[in-house]
Give the backbone structure.
Amino acid sequence: MQFKIILSHTINVMVIPLMLFCFGCSSSTKITEQNVNGDKTEPEYINIEKDAKIPLPFISFESEKEYRQILTADYNGKKNSLLCIVKLNQDGINLTGLTLSSLPLFNLKYEKQNLQGKYYVPKSMLPPVNQVLFDIMLAFDGKNRLSEEISKEYIIHRDDNAVTLGKLDGKELYSIKYAQYDTENLPVKIVNHEFNYSINLEYLNK
């Protein structure tokens, strides 16, 4: 019993500060309960702007990839880190979050347009999972397939070194920087200008 109390306290201390950076964009985001039977669920949404939502888009990836990363989030000058395992494949995306000491936090599977989640801490302590998935898909979408899946009032510009997502009126919402790792060009910094947070990505298996 004492061990469980200590473990719970350790998770709370490590996780709560880390997740504050996403709360600004999570207040109206609905997180659907785990769909364990594979049944069709309600549509998922993301907050693309403070006063606008769009359906959570879905894309798959041509080849199977796995990346182990330390994600360092900066929200209003406060920095915190998370260990993340990203698996991309033809079915979609599998995302696992852990503390830096490898305590599990969550596992998300967004495959064949079906979102399933397992949570090892209360979901109120975690960032909005839809927003996390969108950030990762936007960063790793080398074929720019998201352009065909999001609302037409938003546009994605992509080249080898940078990605921007903005509105047709010129307002910039996202910017992403890339760097060369072996033979791959991988995202190293995601900036959300609308909600004032950034995420630095450090790769552990490169």
Notes: Helices lie at 2-19, 129-140. The mean pLDDT is 83.
